[in-house]
Amino acid sequence: MARCAIVKFKNKLDAITYSQVHFDPVIFGCEVQTRYSVVVDTTSQDADDSHYGNQEERSDNCSCFLVKYGPATIKPRKYPALTLATGRRSKYDILSTPEACRRDIRRVRNRAAQRRATERRDEIHANLSEQVKLLEIERYYLENDIQHLNRRKLLLETLILKYKEECGA
């Protein structure tokens, strides 16, 4: 049976030194952030442990399995989940008949939803492409109008200058 104890260190250097000597770096791969650390002694066995019952029951009540990564405290799982790391079940798992039916229905619904989303996205893309074409045509006509107006302005300015020269002379 593992025993739990909390050790108070005088400073952070003592805590780091203690952790380097006593903790397995694979299990406790974090730097000690506080002056308190949890120490697990797996070598001692006492009669005091009898009130905990079996190991699984004791490990639920024990805080020694908490690992601190900076400000976050994490309790590692005793047993790995049957799902993947993302929380999804493997598609190769053998399911019972109702679960298999539900999975198939969900897949059909997801395919239909994906098809609708793709159609919507394509429709939106087509509408935006059409709007872009219309705006480019409008820009072309506006640029032509600007050039025409600049030529007209230049013509009128030259007429004004000629008039001023004729009237002022």
Automatic annotation (TrEMBL):
According to the UniProt entry, its GO molecular function terms are: DNA-binding transcription factor activity
- Residues annotated as domain BZIP: 102-163
The cross-references to SUPFAM superfamilies, in alphabetical order and at most eight, read: Leucine zipper domain
Full protein name = BZIP domain-containing protein
Q: Which organism is it from?
A: Didymodactylos carnosus
